[in-house]
Fold this protein.
Amino acid sequence: MSIIIDEELCTGCANCIESCMYDAIELDNNIAKVLPNCTLCRACIETCPEEAISIEHEEVKTQEIDISQFKGVWVVAEHYKKKIQNVSFQLLSKGRELADLLQVKLSFVLLGKDFDDELEELSLNGMDEIIYIKSPILKDYYSDLYTKVITELVIENKPEIILIGATPTGRDFAPRVAKRLNAGLTADCTGLEINLETRNLLQTRPTYGGSIMATIRTPSNRPQMATVRAGIFNMPEKVKKNVNIRKIEYQFEEKDSVSKIVKIISKTKSNVNIEDAKFIVAGGRGVGSREGFRIIEELADVLDAELGGSRITVELNWLDPDRQIGQTGKTVSPKLYIACGISGAIQHIVGMQNSEIVVAINKDPNAPIFNWAHYGIVGDLHEIIPVLIQEFKKLKSEE
Amino acid sequence: MCIKQVPGVSEVKIDPKTNTLVREGVKSIINPNDRNALELALTLKEEHKVEVIALSMGPPQAEEALREALAMGIDRAFLLSDRAFAGADTLATSHTLALAIKKILKEFNSEEKYLIICGAQAVDGDTGQVPPELAEELGIPQITYVQNIELSEDKIVVERKFRATEIVVIETKLPALISVLIDINKPRFPSMVGIMKAYEKANVVYFDSNALNADKSKIGLNGSMTEVEKIFFPERKVNPIMIEGSAEEIVQKLCQYLKNDKVF
Ligand SMILES: Cc1cc2nc3c(=O)[nH]c(=O)nc-3n(C[C@H](O)[C@H](O)[C@H](O)COP(=O)(O)OP(=O)(O)OC[C@H]3O[C@@H](n4cnc5c(N)ncnc54)[C@H](O)[C@@H]3O)c2cc1C
Ligand SMILES: Nc1ncnc2c1ncn2[C@@H]1O[C@H](COP(=O)(O)O)[C@@H](O)[C@H]1O
């Protein structure tokens, strides 16, 4: 298995060297040469303007499975304190789209304790079927119980696609289920599409720290599993229709879980919930200091907005870690996002690109954030924001 | 414990003109989260007199990461390196790591009682999938996103962060696997003596696919269920409306635009 460079086609342009995150390509006599530390990540293949790079891989015969037996799209519900989390609804709306394209059923898989009275209300979210696995112990999340139940259900029902929230819960059981089923799993997808010919799910996600995007598929096996963060897809429209409810009272045995929950500790801090915020005011390194962040907070206050920021501001201790936006932080999709002194590194962008309206304030006219903003203001945030605060205060008092 | 060497790119930017990656300071480093895993392993070693073994899968240059771990104070290091391992997705990676772990446990006669520590996620792939997949393959319980741990004779009690403001305290029996978050501790730096020992005396043991008796269809690109269809640069929106003028004018115009857009 290796990356092959066609020496006839290679012009020595070195684009591939730039693209390699592992320093595994060098120029030898003006022709690119792949070094042994290549990880076969393929980033170079796309960047070659001459199409001189390809990947060669000897196929080893693996067990073929009949993928046409697998039908249907599943969304696994996440709940906390008896409340289904928004990410599950967002996945239902995307799941509906995928199921319609594939002309299959959309099922909502719910593992829980007392949802019996909620099922009717839940059934307005566009699914065709609710599979409700009921047991007192499923009030809380247990990784081994989830893994057991979901793998059993998959083996019995053979869905082709399973969508799971990329939360600490989903990211805990999804890999375990994938391993037990030997199924492909793609983490933190930001885009999901279908290739109708192959019925493959095309899963797009940021990779290598978000600097490039990769589209990933699972061609030879089913189910195809993907996790998705909250805020990537929209909430579904409510619809009234006939939803088939399959309720299964599940009996666990003692040996099914080796772990036990001792207790749950809530930090007294107020609940930060920037994922669902309508307005967000976010600060970056350009804010300058922890004290400087006060005007960002003040702006957030007058707007009734949540406060957010780039990773650097968290690293500098100007901002609470729960308010970091981006690839390693939260994904947000507010109506209005005001980015103050944020350069717009792609790792930040992937967390806020679904905002409806983006306003960027930056003193550097070439800052990449302007490529993602609807309204751009080139200037010093310390001059503009105080005026903005005054104006918003005025607007508020007029209302 | 499992450590991964990753590209140490602190700032990846895209050159807006050529649309290519501009990298500053490419140098391979130990995955930041794995440093926390290392630190935790070393504290447990000091408190409980356990033996700490580090394991990494990667190209030969990943030996640097293991040398650094040795310099910090781990007891032994193993590097799984073979062209046949390249191109692995998380399923194939966890399979390879599991083969090596089983082999090492057997050699050390310690199949009954052990703890595997991983980082919560690696900054290059950023999936966090390897730890649960590894636990599944080893048939042991896992606790991911761990912030705190207490180890006793045959069990662990850990604090797992499962929501922004909530922590769940979980107890489980050994053997088990945990993956740790960046806030669990502050990793130490290698000492001078440690560095000298790591480079002069200590030894990194290499395993290739033969040593692991690996089934070729389960490792590397062949063992991967997922494959990359394409890689591309994120698409950018174009042409923002640039608002100019004095601060007052800018603010007036912006508010007008936002009202027209029915933001308020
Ligand atoms: C694996 C990985 C994951 C990452 N994950 C994230 C993530 O989740 N979230 C995230 O945000 N980052 C993340 N990053 C970091 C990211 O690459 C950037 O380094 C970071 O987003 C930059 O933050 P910034 O825009 O605040 O700072 P800078 O890039 O330093 O930008 C500061 C900006 O402020 C402007 N400025 C300065 N002074 C003023 C002023 N007075 N008025 C107006 N403008 C001013 C400057 O022109 C500049 O554009 C990640 C990086 C890696 C490698
Ligand atoms: N190639 C590897 N070698 C050793 N450990 C790894 C490797 N890949 C992943 N891991 C471990 O799994 C954790 C999560 O990685 P990932 O699932 O790739 O985000 C890392 O922090 C490591 O502890």
